Amino acid sequence: MAGSQALGVRIPAHVLAGVDRYARVRDLTRSMAVAALVERALSDAGMAREETPPPGTATASGAQDAASGRRAQQWGIRTARPVAAALGAEKAADQPLANEFMLDGRRVAIKCAKPATSQCGLTNTMRDRVDSIVCVEEAAGGMFKLYKVTPEQWEDNATHPPKHNRNHGTQTHLSRSAWRRIGEDLGEVEIDG
């Protein structure tokens, strides 16, 4: 069963500041940091549920579960930064927890995919903020292939989550085959893994 996405809990400012520091150090979003810290606290208190699959374990159907989704998101965040550096892009100061960067005075989102990943997701708010999206696919030997698409190309070729999905109406997905077909080939970069 999926957990709640909004708990309605008020977090004291000093605790939230600690969460934000943890998020920066670990290259996580605030939500990911809260989830990681709560999971650790529950485990330390002996309250972790034994029937919960280990983090990163796919469900029986092969779909992504919450833990593997967080791990994929963390990998994407960690990977986007050196890709941005290789392109000469700098972190967008007003979006410190997002994969948004400034490149030649224009805002760009960097979305990363491992070899077995068939698509990347993008929130509608990020799509509407950026001038382009760089889709990055991992290849062999630390090489990453890059394709640039416009927000309009993304929207025209993206798929929407089904109505029962919690991301319906807020996020879309672009397939690897689509970004290869419509995207501007930016070549390859090598980053240390």
Structure overview:
The chain has 193 residues and is α+β, with helices and mostly antiparallel strands. The chain has a domain of 103 residues: PvuII Endonuclease, Chain A (3-Layer(aba) Sandwich), CATH 3.40.210.30. 37% of the residues lie in helices and 23% in strands. The protein has six helices and eight strands. Strands 1-2-3-5-6-8 form a six-stranded mixed beta sheet, sandwiched between helices. The chain has a two-stranded antiparallel ribbon with strand order 4-7. It starts with 12 loop residues before the first helix and ends with a strand.
What is the total tally of β strands? 8
Which strands sit side by side, in order, in the main sheet? Answer: 1-2-3-5-6-8
Mean pLDDT: 82
Roughly how much helix do the residues carry, as a percent range? 25-40%
**Global Rg:** 17 Å
Please tell me what the overall shape is. Answer: globular
Helix and strand pattern? HHHEEEEHEEHEHE
Q: In brief, what are we looking at here?
A:
The chain is of the alpha+beta class and 193 residues long. Helix content is 37%, strand content 23%. It has a domain at 88-190: PvuII Endonuclease, Chain A (3-Layer(aba) Sandwich), CATH 3.40.210.30.
